[in-house]
């Protein structure tokens, strides 16, 4: 499970290099046989433009959004990509400079403007980026490329054309939403983001967007807040990247990584700061787990006011969440401690030589796959004893004298500086339900170099890995007549800079992680974060 490879040649630097978009799809060279049930498209998003003119982007989450597509047809594969024509991208290309401040890159004011027009721009407030480089998902019959702000971008998944920018603030009380919604079988979308709560304090809203409407109207117009979680600190919401959802509950983990809103609102237009400058860690707060009922009638949820506490962690990705006999089981990819992991994702770090990359990762929080178990039935008199009685887990929940419940996790996987990240499951059949298998990208000192399968019940692992090959998040596609949970394939985009053809789409058998086929292309492919298989 731990990476067998070192990367002294530094081939991984290639995945952080600018590429030009293609003018038309290119055919891939297929080795092996493409399963006949693959007839759709693999869609991926990530950064593709890492500098504008002579101005660089500094952070992994700053490069301009490039959308990738592998199309499957009659056993053949084509590859296509296109930049999403966001305001951030179009204005940068037009003005040949960084115009809109990104996650870790400040946009300097236009040098051609005089002091008065700059002054007025300042009073108009912050221009929030629409650079949708993180994920793509369906809402109704439409598809949206997304980041974590209030802007999402409607795209045509056939042509990869950009259709329109949508501001979610126009429909629902939210400052931004995550790039990791939960989507139910009927197409209902749930997402979470922070918002202004009661009495000018911060909170977190869960938003529900209904499925395709009979009258063909836009489901986004019928978005509703279904439940609100309180914020532990009035002006400092936690950074939220994803959340958990079982059949009847939401799980929201409030970590000690905070956004200092006052810094965000005041300092930012004046002193050349960016989003990264507005994060801070609360070293005493630890982690809070919140739960809410999904639907108590009329489409409204209900917050359950129990204080579940745990040691400080960073958490970006929930693996799966399910209910079992009065307990909620939440499996998550964590990083131990309160220091923000994104501090280690500056491009200068990731493009360093291998020994430097390793040194930096030694300082960073350590990754661990954890299972937390939350009891639903709680009585005050049960102080001091473990409330969890599921036979298969060592996770505990103990009520303290102050009425808070302290959660200790079961460790499902842990390897020094070896992360199990960008997790995926057989979501269609097992999302929100009891399950056995998770698939992930293995990060070796933050460098992606393997695909991992984990049996969460037995902790057994399987690995696919090749020298100087840098894969991306594996997406699971179920075999149409599949019976077992792992009857299916994994799709991942691999970059192998030294090879004759530097990028390929790899198809693995999800049962044993053996290679079924690969489709190689002759063009460079940069890093991608998330995506989907569109049938």
Automatic annotation (TrEMBL):
Catalytic activity: an all-trans-retinyl ester + H2O = 11-cis-retinol + a fatty acid + H(+); all-trans-retinyl hexadecanoate + H2O = 11-cis-retinol + hexadecanoate + H(+); lutein = (3R,3'S)-zeaxanthin
GO biological process: retinal metabolic process; visual perception; zeaxanthin biosynthetic process
Alphabetical keyword list: Cell membrane, Hydrolase, Iron, Isomerase, Lipoprotein, Membrane, Metal-binding, Palmitate, Sensory transduction, Vision
GO cellular component, as recorded: plasma membrane
Cofactors required: Fe(2+)
Cofactor note: Binds 1 Fe(2+) ion per subunit.
GO molecular function annotation: all-trans-retinyl-ester hydrolase, 11-cis retinol forming activity; beta-carotene 15,15'-dioxygenase activity; metal ion binding; retinol isomerase activity
Highest taxon of the lineage: Eukaryota
Membrane topology note: Lipid-anchor
InterPro entries: Carotenoid_Oase (IPR004294)
UniProt: Fe cation binding residues: 180, 241, 317, 530
Localisation per UniProt entry: Cell membrane
Enzyme Commission numbers on file: 3.1.1.64, 5.3.3.22
Family statement: Belongs to the carotenoid oxygenase family.
PANTHER family: BETA-CAROTENE DIOXYGENASE (PTHR10543), RETINOID ISOMEROHYDROLASE (PTHR10543:SF57)
Protein name: Retinoid isomerohydrolase
Organism: Oncorhynchus kisutch
């Amino acid at each position: 499970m731990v990476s067998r490879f070192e990367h002294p040649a530094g081939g991984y630097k290639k995945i952080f290099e600018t590429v030009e978009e293609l003018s038309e799809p290119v055919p891939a060279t297929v080795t092996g046989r493409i399963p006949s049930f693959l007839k759709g498209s693999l869609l991926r998003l990530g950064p593709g433009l890492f500098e504008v003119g002579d101005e660089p982007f500094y952070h992994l989450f700053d490069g301009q959004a490039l959308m990738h597509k592998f199309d499957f047809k009659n056993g053949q594969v084509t590859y296509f990509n296109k930049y999403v024509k966001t305001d951030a991208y179009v204005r940068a290309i037009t003005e040949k400079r960084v115009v809109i401040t990104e996650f870790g890159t400040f946009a300097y004011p236009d040098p051609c403007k005089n002091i008065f027009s700059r002054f007025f721009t300042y009073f108009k407030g912050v221009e929030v980026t629409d650079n949708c480089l993180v994920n793509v998902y369906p809402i109704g019959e439409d598809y949206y490329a997304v980041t974590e702000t209030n802007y999402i971008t409607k795209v045509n998944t056939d042509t990869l054309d950009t259709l329109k920018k949508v501001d979610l603030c126009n429909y629902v009380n939210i400052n931004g939403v995550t790039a990791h919604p939960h989507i139910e079988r009927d197409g209902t979308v749930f997402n979470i983001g922070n918002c202004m709560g009661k009495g000018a304090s911060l909170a977190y809203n869960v938003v529900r967007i209904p499925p395709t409407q009979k009258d063909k109207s836009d489901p986004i117009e019928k978005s509703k807040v279904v439940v609100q979680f309180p914020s532990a600190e009035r002006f400092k919401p936690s950074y939220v990247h994803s959340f958990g959802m079982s059949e009847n509950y939401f799980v929201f983990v409030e970590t000690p990584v905070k956004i200092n809103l006052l810094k965000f609102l005041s300092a930012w237009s004046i002193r050349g700061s960016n989003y990264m400058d507005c994060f801070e860690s609360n070293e005493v707060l630890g982690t809070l787990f919140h739960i809410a009922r999904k639907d108590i009638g009329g489409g409204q949820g209900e917050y359950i006011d129990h204080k579940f506490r745990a040691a400080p962690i960073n958490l970006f990705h929930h693996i799966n969440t399910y209910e079992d006999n009065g307990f909620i089981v939440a499996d998550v990819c964590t990083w131990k401690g309160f220091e923000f992991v994104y501090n280690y994702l500056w491009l200068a770090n990731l493009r360093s030589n291998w020994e430097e990359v390793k040194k930096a990762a030694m300082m960073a929080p350590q990754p661990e796959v954890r299972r937390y178990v939350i009891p639903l039935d709680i009585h005050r008199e049960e102080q001091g004893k473990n409330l969890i009685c599921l036979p298969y887990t060592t996770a505990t929940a103990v009520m303290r004298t102050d009425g808070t419940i302290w959660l200790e996790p079961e460790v499902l996987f842990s390897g020094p500086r070896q992360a199990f990240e960008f997790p995926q499951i057989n979501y269609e059949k097992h999302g929100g339900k009891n399950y056995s298998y998770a698939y992930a990208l293995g990060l070796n000192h933050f460098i992606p170099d393997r695909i991992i399968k984990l049996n969460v019940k037995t902790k057994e692992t399987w690995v696919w890995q090749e020298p100087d090959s840098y894969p991306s998040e594996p997406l699971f596609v179920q075999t149409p007549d599949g019976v077992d949970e792992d009857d299916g394939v994994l799709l991942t985009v691999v970059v192998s800079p030294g090879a004759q053809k530097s990028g390929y789409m790899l198809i693995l058998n999800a049962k044993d992680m053996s290679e079924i086929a690969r489709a190689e292309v002759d063009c460079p492919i940069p890093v991608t974060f998330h995506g989907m298989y569109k049938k």
